[in-house]
Amino acid sequence: MNDMLLSAWRYRYFILSSIKTELRTKFVRSRLGGLWMILNPLSQVLIFAFVLSAVLSVKLPGIDNQYAYAIYLMAGILGWSLFAEIVNRCLTLFIDNGNILKKLVFPRIALPLIVTGSALVNNALLFVAILAIFGVLGHLPGTALIWLPALMVVNIALALGLGLALGVLNVFMRDIGQIVPVILQFLFWFTPIVYMATIIPEQYRTLLVFNPMTPIVTGYQNVLLYNRAPDWSGLDVIALIALGLLAFALVLFRKASPEMVDQL
């Protein structure tokens, strides 16, 4: 595993240039350019806020703002979009780049790192847009923002570990590529993004404990909405799970790499 990570470090300029090229070519003929990176998640927020805010905004304790529900939504969407983009792109990463893997010599671990870097840039632009909207709505986050990088690290580790493992398995079992998007849809609605956990009946609320995204998204909401530190009593377990999953995914990736090229 050390050799794999050292190879990625030696090819760091290749990884960075690939991220720049990917972002540039994605919008080369687009008049709005990078704005498309943030318009999709923000459109989701507007739809949910328009349809549901009249019902749920009164259920946000501690927030004295008529746009509280839209703010709550944006905080959750910021955390979810980073996770979902990395998982979805890693899922078909090796299948989509099969020809490159066969023809070019480079450390294959560079591919998921390029995806992660690109997703991080997209998420950073979305974060800037959300901060601007918060300002317009009269709600500016405070000093609790210092916790956001730590939340992002846990989020990325979980997403990359899960996405990389699923991406490797998808090369050998293509049904995984069909099943995972459906599971992610269920996971989205099983995460308190569109609703607050307190509105769920007590007998079902404990089920949220088994969703690893619940502490992460709640952490984003605590930081951006309530200006308080995340609840690390739940996040520390998720961080350990994420690191364990990432280590497993790297081992799986290393052992399966030679066979993946044959399958592709």
What is this structure's SSE topology?
Blueprint lengths: L1 H9 L1 H15 L9 H21 L11 H24 L1 H4 L1 H6 L6 H27 L11 H25 L2 H15 L12 H4 L7 H12 L7 H32 L1
Please provide a written account of the structure.
- The chain is an all-alpha fold.
- It has one domain (42-52, 64-263).
- Helix content is 73%, strand content 0%.
- The longest helix has 32 residues, at 232-263.
- The mean pLDDT is 82.
Question: Can I get a quick summary?
Answer:
The protein is mostly helical and 264 residues long. The chain is built from twelve helices and no strands.
Count of folded domains: 1
Structural class: mainly alpha
Q: Percent of residues in beta strands?
A: under 5%
Order of helices and strands: HHHHHHHHHHHH
Radius of gyration: 19 Å
**Main sheet characteristics:** none
Low-confidence segments, given as residue ranges, are none
Number of helices: 12
What's the shape? Answer: globular
pLDDT averaged residue by residue:
82
Q: How far is the N terminus from the C terminus? A: 23 Å
Number of strands: 0
Helix content: over 70%
Descriptive keywords:
single chain; 264 residues; mainly alpha; 12 helices; 73% helix; globular
